[in-house]
Amino acid sequence: MKPVKIIALVLVIAIVVGCAGFGIIKHSEISYVMAAMNKAVDTIKDGTWQDIIKGSGGEEGERESEAPQLTFTPNDYAGVSLQSVEDVVNYYNTVYNATKAETANYTTEDGSTAVFYKALVEESLTLKPNSLLVNGKPSSFLNGLVSPILGKIFKPNVNGLPPCANRDPNQDVDETGASMMTSRVTPEDVLSCEVVDNGDGTITITIVPQTVNMSHKGMDAQGHFFNSLGAIDSTIETIGVEWAEGTTADNCKVVYEDGYAKVKVDVASGKIVEGEYHMVAKVDITHANFMGAINNKGAGLILYYDNKFPASDEYIMERRQLVRQ
Q1: Which residues of 67-95 are buried (b: 16+ CB within 10 A; e: fewer)?
Q2: Which residues contact 125 (CB under 8 A, 6 or more apart)?
Q3: CB proximity list for 129: less than 8 A, separation 6 or greater
Q4: Residue 209's closest CA among 127, 279, 160?
Q5: Are 291 and 17 in contact (CB under 8 A)?
Q6: What φ, ψ does residue 145 adopt, rounded to 5°?
Q7: Is residue 229 within 8 Å of residue 3, measured between CB atoms?
């Protein structure tokens, strides 16, 4: 997930640059977009990109909320007493920690044995349909162009329950080097939540976290649930973008909102048996000047990043050539 913030940045910048004359898309502009994206692919492949750690808006105006409408009702759920949001958070943390604490042996591609998390997840990154806007205006051509580029760059990986930096528990650390093997969710992180008794000894907990701009994995309300991208604002300054007005903080936003974590818990074992982590990142760049090609332009897009638990045997074999022992 580390290169994703670079991907998101270059996607938007490349489109802003390539569409300086929005509405008249010339062959040279398409070529510029493709060249910029190919350069992004190369920098990710050869490792020359770098993470620069650090902080809503957008020229397209207010976006309609996609967050599920949740209402928490104090009750006993399958024998678990949950009388407050704090109770829900404490229970989520308990079952998350119990689930993530388990490890398993895996046979690797070379036939050796490795110890990784038992709870592995599948991941995907997609562009919200028709969410790409240039100076507040949509383009069916550009929206069609970006998804294949995104698919070319983003290669799904295999990791543990989010937030997670690595399937190896010993390497699952945040940007400060602190372990992320245990949940950091607090009641203050929760915008809304819901608990459902499924009537079969399981309960389903859904939590929508508070909105965060420039979320860092493991470090804030969104990062306590998702593999968020870190700081794009600092990174953008390194590639020569300047601003027609305002500062980088004014003009580069990555707003995380409307995402949710949804887990099914087996009450008897006290562990998560199914999970869905849906992160929504709304990237907006405004008033950009870049390489003399554009002046005072803006662009934005919405990325969906999803983790699904448990990962299938087929998925972990395809992505990392691992076989569960």
Answers
A1: beeeebeeeebbebebeebebbbebbbeb
A2: 4, 150, 154, 156, 303, 304, 305, 306
A3: 143
A4: 279
A5: yes
A6: -75, -40
A7: no
Q: Which residues touch 156 (CB under 8 Å, ≥6 apart)?
A: 122, 123, 124, 125, 319
DSSP 277-305: EEEEEEEEEEEEEETTTEEEEEEEEEEEE
Exposure letters 248-278 (e unless 16+ CB within 10 A, then b)? beebbbbbbbbbbbbbbbbbeeebbeebbbb
- pLDDT, one tens digit per residue, over 188-219 is 999 999 999 999 999 999 999 999 999 999 99
CA dist., res. 267 & res. 253, Å (int): 40
DSSP states of 152-186: HH-----EESSS-S-SSGGG-B-TTS-B-SS----
Q: Where are the beta strands (DSSP E) in the chain?
A: 75-77, 80-82, 103-107, 113-117, 120-127, 133-134, 137-138, 159-160, 190-197, 202-209, 212-213, 241-243, 252-256, 260-266, 271-290, 294-309, 323-324
pTM of the model as a whole: 0.84
Nearest to 316 by CA among 160, 154, 153: 160
Phi-psi region of 199 (alpha: psi -120 to 50; beta: other; left: phi over 0): left
**CA–CA gap between residue 132 and residue 60 (Å, rounded):** 10
Phi, psi of 263 (to 5 degrees): -130, 140
Distance CA(9)–CA(284), nearest Å, equals: 9
Residue type, 31: S
Side chain identity at residue 13, one-letter code: I
Terminus-to-terminus CA distance in the chain, angstroms? 26
Cα–Cα distance for residue pair 147/153, rounded to 1 Å: 10
Distance (Å) of CA 200 to CA 12, 44, 49, 196: 46, 46, 48, 11
Q: Using one digit for the tens of pLDDT, what is the confidence trace for 80-128?
A: 999 999 999 999 999 999 999 999 999 999 999 999 999 999 999 888 9
Instruction: Provide φ and ψ at 6, rounded to 5°.
Output: -70, -40
Please state, in angstroms and rounded to a whole number, the distance separating the CA atoms of residues 88 and 82: 6
